[in-house]
Design brief:
Radius of gyration: 21 Å
CATH topology of the largest domain: Endonuclease, Chain A
Distance between the termini: 40 Å
Helix content: 25-40%
Strand content: 15-25%
CATH superfamily of the largest domain: Endonuclease Chain A
């Protein structure tokens, strides 16, 4: 990493700790405190893990090896086979004295509904769980299994927590698109995680701590262990955590920047491509000579968004964009620009992700990670995909056009 690209490592650590100390000393963390913005920092050991057999095995290994803390922010953590497997690991680690904390979403994880029994088991083991309730006018705050406070939630309505990130011992981080749910384990949903080490992990940590406290979690101690001093090696690469929150959308800005900055190649994978401004940018990139490859599911699990997306296929194809329809439900969200820059995480190209949901991504300048994406994800994915087409029949065109007109609500 070139000198002067980022502040010195010591200054970054101290700044993050000061921000964490402010959060932990506050009697109440507000929604405004969720708007966590970061300066570029550095990452090492970036590893792309494609397919559930790879990423869940690696996550499980790291969780079993945890010595101090496991922090998980997960939209979908339900009591099916995979959720129960993860719970078994977390219960055992809590019994060993590892501090385990979870931030989950009510809609995606049903901790007060169908998965209530599993969350009771976690709480009984001492795992600290808080819940985002983005679709309830009266929300519960505090630890699951403890004394929950009810409060009005008008400001939180329409803001689900769609994030999937993990921090282990303050030194190992993961970000990706998969939930702890069976349809990822079976491969019905095709997804990925990126594992990393380095100072960027502390940025993920601060986002987690803000969310945990905002949702009623108790103050967190031992910040020096959670945000540790880490020596920067010579092979570190530039990386930054981007975090969308209500009224605060750096991921959405970064997506526009990456598309507009592309000059030679642009690879995009996303399950729901229905945002007209983003599509216009993709069209513009292709028309100025960028080779654009768009990988989408042949049959998305959300038929409404699938219809809206297909309305835009004609404009994309006419501009020269390669659309590839994967035989499985591709659920990954990533952009790879010019073989040097990668944006990967949880943000979809539709209104909820871009404007309403809590989302988290990592942006990095890493030719090595870009090569991993080409070799392990895009090239093999496109090889088994079929070329995308636009609606052919008049009825199909009319229906997709009508649904696409609803894009602010999708």
């Amino acid at each position: 990493m070139a000198a002067g690209e980022t502040p010195p490592a010591e200054e970054q650590v101290e700044a993050l700790r000061r921000r964490a100390e402010t959060l932990e000393s506050s009697t109440a963390v507000s929604r405004a405190d969720m708007s966590q913005a970061f300066e570029p920092t550095w990452a090492t050991d970036l590893e792309l893990l494609v397919g559930a057999d790879r990423y869940f095995r690696r996550i499980g290994q790291d969780m079993r090896s945890a010595q101090q803390s496991i922090h998980i922010n997960q939209f979908g953590y339900k009591s099916d086979a995979l959720g129960k497997d993860a719970t078994g690991i977390l219960v055992k680690k809590a019994a060993e004295g590892v501090v385990v904390r979870l931030v989950v979403d009510d809609q995606g994880s049903t901790p007060f509904g169908s998965s209530k029994g599993m969350y009771g088991e976690l709480a009984d083991a001492g795992v600290q769980v808080v819940v985002n309730q983005g679709f309830r006018p009266i929300a519960k705050r505090g630890l699951v299994g403890g004394r929950l406070r009810r409060r009005t939630n008008v400001a939180g309505l329409g803001h689900p927590d769609h994030r999937k990130s993990i921090v282990i011992d303050g030194r190992i981080g993961y970000v990706g698109g998969a939930g702890f749910q069976e349809h990822f384990e079976t491969g019905e949903f095709h997804d990925l995680f990126v594992r990393m080490t380095g100072a960027v992990v502390s940025q993920f940590q601060l986002v987690f701590l803000a969310s945990f406290r905002y949702l009623g979690g108790p103050p967190v101690e031992n910040l020096e262990a959670l945000i540790p001093d880490i020596e920067q090696p010579d092979d570190a690469v530039r990386a930054t955590v981007l975090h969308n929150a209500p009224g605060f959308r750096p991921i959405s800005v970064a997506i526009a920047e990456i598309i507009d900055a592309s000059r030679e190649t642009l690879d995009i994978v996303n399950p729901y491509v229905a945002d007209p401004p983003s599509i216009r940018r993709i069209v513009g990139a292709s028309r100025r000579g960028v080779r654009v490859r768009l990988l989408v599911p042949a049959k998305a699990n959300n038929p409404v968004l699938a219809l809206a997306q297909r309305h835009h296929h004609r404009a994309l194809l006419d501009a020269g964009v390669e659309i590839w329809e994967h035989p499985r439900m591709v659920h990954s969200k990533a952009f790879v620009r010019d073989g040097i820059e990668v944006l990967v995480g949880t943000c979809n190209l539709e209104a909820w992700s871009l404007r309403r949901s809590y989302e988290i991504d990592m942006r990095t300048r890493s030719p090595d990670l870009a090569r991993q994406f080409a070799h392990d994800f895009f090239d093999p994915g496109i090889e088994i995909s079929r070329p995308g087409t636009a609606p052919q029949r008049a009825a199909g065109r009319a229906l997709s056009r009508a649904v696409a007109a609803l894009h602010p609500l999708l």
